[in-house]
Amino acid sequence: MASRALLRGILRSPSGLVGSALIACMLLIAFIGPELLRIDPSAPDLSAKLRPPSREHWFGADELGRDVLSRVVYGARMSLTITILGVVGSLVVGSALGLLAGFRGGAWEMAIMQLVEMLMAMPGFLLALLAITVLGIGVQNLIASLAIQSIPVFARVAHAATLSVREMEFIQAAQSIGATERRIMVRELVPNIMSPLLVQATLRLATTLLLASSLSFLGLGVQPPQPEWGAMLSGGRAYVSAAPHVILFPGLAIMVTTLGFNLMGDALRDTLDPRYRRE
Asked: For 17-33+61-276, which CATH superfamily applies?
């Protein structure tokens, strides 16, 4: 019932409705589009090199004659998978650290939050860049780097939420009847701190997508010939004047997806926290 009420609240908001529609479309394109399109995104055709949009190539062809439409569609699966896994990883680890620090207090809180503050002092892009430099180039390492750079954000949100909840009567009641710390954290605290974490996760998806695309643009993420939106922008930057369609469509895909995540995050925030509702 709670999930239905949450969905209704999001869809009642114009921004939530538009954002949800955009994200639903991109997810359909990512996970169903390749099955319907059935065009090899890595197959070169030098006779079609830099061909503009036409009936044969709706989005045109790139510098190797590869179909841009198929690469955008297959790239959607890669880009969204990397983004979602990166955010989920950071959500799980960061929330666990913040929850532990907030509930245990004392030395645990001091050690965890000092580490978090140290990581927060470094810009997210530089932190991800440092992580991928240490781990090495590759899709799995890219996902790990994206997760690492967002862990401090979720840890701080979870820590603040835990501090506001742990002194409530139902927590004290659970402690008085002898409930274990693990049971209190999992059964009592986690459900009551999820609202701000879900909002932060939705908004973080947009930031993570941009960061993943930036790293791939720099050659530190997905490697050719795998299609990925940031890597497509990198490959087509030399042809901006001669064939702008090569970077136009992957750029639009990034823009639309980022807009969808931001709109949905705003609607989710307004639904879960009435203090943010617009008049």
From this structure: MetI-like (1.10.3720.10)
**Which residue type does 35 have?**
E
- Please, are residues 74 and 225 in contact by the beta-carbon 8 Å criterion? no
Query: pLDDT-derived band of residue 251, with 50, 70 and 90 as boundaries?
Result: very high
Q: pLDDT per residue over 230-245, tens digit each?
A: 999 999 988 988 899 9
DSSP string computed for 121-182: TS-HHHHHHHHHHHH-SSHHHHHHHHHHHHHHHHHHHHHHHHHHHTTSHHHHHHHHTT--HH
**pLDDT over 70 (residue 278):** no
The residues spanned by each domain of the chain are: 17-33+61-276
CA dist 96 and 102 (Å) reads 10
